Amino acid sequence: MISSPDKVFINVHGAGHLEPNLYHSEGPFVAFFARAFALGDVAARAKIYGEGAGSLQRTLELAQPGDYNSGTDEVAFLACSRDKTAVPQIFASYCDQGKVDEFVGSTSEEVIILE
Protein backbone atom coordinates (compact mmCIF):
# COMPACT_ATOMS: atom_id res chain seq x y z
CA MET A 1 0.00 0.00 0.00
CA ILE A 2 1.28 3.44 -0.91
CA SER A 3 1.18 5.76 2.08
CA SER A 4 2.99 8.87 0.85
CA PRO A 5 0.88 11.80 -0.39
CA ASP A 6 3.65 12.46 -2.95
CA LYS A 7 3.47 9.75 -5.59
CA VAL A 8 3.50 9.18 -9.32
CA PHE A 9 1.90 6.38 -11.31
CA ILE A 10 2.79 6.02 -14.97
CA ASN A 11 2.12 3.23 -17.40
CA VAL A 12 4.52 3.56 -20.33
CA HIS A 13 3.07 2.21 -23.58
CA GLY A 14 4.91 -0.85 -24.84
CA ALA A 15 7.46 -0.93 -22.01
CA GLY A 16 8.05 -4.28 -20.36
CA HIS A 17 9.09 -5.28 -16.89
CA LEU A 18 12.82 -4.98 -17.66
CA GLU A 19 12.63 -1.54 -19.29
CA PRO A 20 14.21 0.24 -16.30
CA ASN A 21 17.22 -2.10 -16.48
CA LEU A 22 17.63 -2.02 -20.26
CA TYR A 23 16.58 1.35 -21.66
CA HIS A 24 16.23 3.75 -18.71
CA SER A 25 13.68 6.05 -20.39
CA GLU A 26 12.18 7.00 -17.04
CA GLY A 27 15.56 7.44 -15.32
CA PRO A 28 15.72 11.23 -15.64
CA PHE A 29 12.26 11.52 -14.10
CA VAL A 30 13.26 9.42 -11.09
CA ALA A 31 16.08 11.93 -10.60
CA PHE A 32 13.74 14.91 -11.08
CA PHE A 33 11.38 13.45 -8.46
CA ALA A 34 14.27 13.09 -6.00
CA ARG A 35 15.53 16.61 -6.71
CA ALA A 36 12.05 18.07 -6.31
CA PHE A 37 11.55 16.60 -2.86
CA ALA A 38 15.08 16.33 -1.47
CA LEU A 39 16.28 19.72 -2.69
CA GLY A 40 13.06 21.65 -3.24
CA ASP A 41 14.00 22.08 -6.91
CA VAL A 42 11.03 23.87 -8.50
CA ALA A 43 12.20 23.18 -12.07
CA ALA A 44 12.54 19.47 -11.32
CA ARG A 45 9.05 19.45 -9.80
CA ALA A 46 7.69 20.95 -13.03
CA LYS A 47 9.16 17.98 -14.93
CA ILE A 48 6.98 15.64 -12.81
CA TYR A 49 3.82 17.66 -12.13
CA GLY A 50 3.95 20.01 -15.12
CA GLU A 51 2.32 19.60 -18.48
CA GLY A 52 4.81 21.51 -20.61
CA ALA A 53 7.51 20.42 -23.02
CA GLY A 54 9.98 18.06 -21.34
CA SER A 55 7.52 17.02 -18.63
CA LEU A 56 7.08 13.35 -17.80
CA GLN A 57 3.66 13.06 -19.39
CA ARG A 58 4.81 14.85 -22.56
CA THR A 59 8.07 12.91 -22.91
CA LEU A 60 7.15 9.28 -22.25
CA GLU A 61 4.47 7.64 -24.37
CA LEU A 62 1.55 6.86 -22.09
CA ALA A 63 -0.36 3.59 -22.29
CA GLN A 64 -3.68 3.63 -24.10
CA PRO A 65 -7.02 2.37 -22.76
CA GLY A 66 -6.93 -1.41 -22.78
CA ASP A 67 -3.15 -1.64 -22.33
CA TYR A 68 -1.89 -3.70 -19.40
CA ASN A 69 -1.70 -1.92 -16.04
CA SER A 70 -3.97 0.94 -17.05
CA GLY A 71 -5.72 0.43 -13.77
CA THR A 72 -9.38 1.16 -14.20
CA ASP A 73 -8.63 1.25 -17.95
CA GLU A 74 -8.50 5.02 -17.92
CA VAL A 75 -5.47 6.01 -15.84
CA ALA A 76 -2.09 5.87 -17.56
CA PHE A 77 -0.55 8.75 -15.62
CA LEU A 78 -1.27 10.28 -12.23
CA ALA A 79 0.92 12.53 -10.11
CA CYS A 80 -0.27 13.32 -6.58
CA SER A 81 1.24 15.79 -4.14
CA ARG A 82 0.78 16.63 -0.47
CA ASP A 83 -0.31 20.13 -1.52
CA LYS A 84 -3.34 18.50 -3.18
CA THR A 85 -1.91 18.87 -6.68
CA ALA A 86 -3.17 16.11 -8.95
CA VAL A 87 -2.19 15.79 -12.59
CA PRO A 88 -4.44 15.22 -14.39
CA GLN A 89 -6.96 16.82 -12.04
CA ILE A 90 -9.77 14.58 -13.32
CA PHE A 91 -8.24 11.64 -11.39
CA ALA A 92 -7.62 13.58 -8.15
CA SER A 93 -9.90 11.25 -6.18
CA TYR A 94 -7.31 8.48 -6.63
CA CYS A 95 -4.78 10.60 -4.73
CA ASP A 96 -6.62 10.00 -1.47
CA GLN A 97 -4.80 7.69 0.92
CA GLY A 98 -4.79 4.15 -0.45
CA LYS A 99 -6.86 4.92 -3.55
CA VAL A 100 -3.94 4.39 -5.96
CA ASP A 101 -3.89 0.74 -4.96
CA GLU A 102 -7.43 0.39 -6.28
CA PHE A 103 -6.42 0.86 -9.90
CA VAL A 104 -2.78 -0.29 -10.14
CA GLY A 105 -2.54 -3.56 -12.06
CA SER A 106 0.19 -6.16 -11.98
CA THR A 107 0.72 -7.45 -15.50
CA SER A 108 3.53 -6.96 -17.99
CA GLU A 109 3.50 -3.27 -18.97
CA GLU A 110 5.95 -0.98 -17.21
CA VAL A 111 4.59 0.75 -14.13
CA ILE A 112 6.66 3.26 -12.25
CA ILE A 113 5.59 4.43 -8.85
CA LEU A 114 7.80 7.05 -7.27
CA GLU A 115 7.19 7.63 -3.61
- How many strand segments? 4
Question: Strand portion, in percent?
Answer: 5-15%
The coarse overall form would be globular
Overall SS class: alpha+beta
Q: Which segments are poorly predicted (pLDDT under 50) over 5 or more consecutive residues?
A: 105-111
The mean pLDDT is: 79
How would you spell out the order of helices and strands? EHHHHEEHE
Helix content: 25-40%
Rg (C-alpha, Å): 13 Å
The spatial strand order of the largest sheet comes to: 3-2-1-4
Q: How many angstroms separate the termini?
A: 11 Å
| Structure annotation, total helices | 5
Main sheet characteristics? 4 strands, antiparallel
Written overview of the protein:
There is one protein chain. The protein is an alpha+beta fold. Helix content is 28%, strand content 15%. The protein has helices at 19-22, 27-38, 42-49, 56-59, 100-103; strands spanning 7-12, 77-80, 86-87, 110-114. The protein has a four-stranded antiparallel sheet with strand order 3-2-1-4, with no helix packed on it. Helix 2 (27-38) packs across helix 3 (42-49).
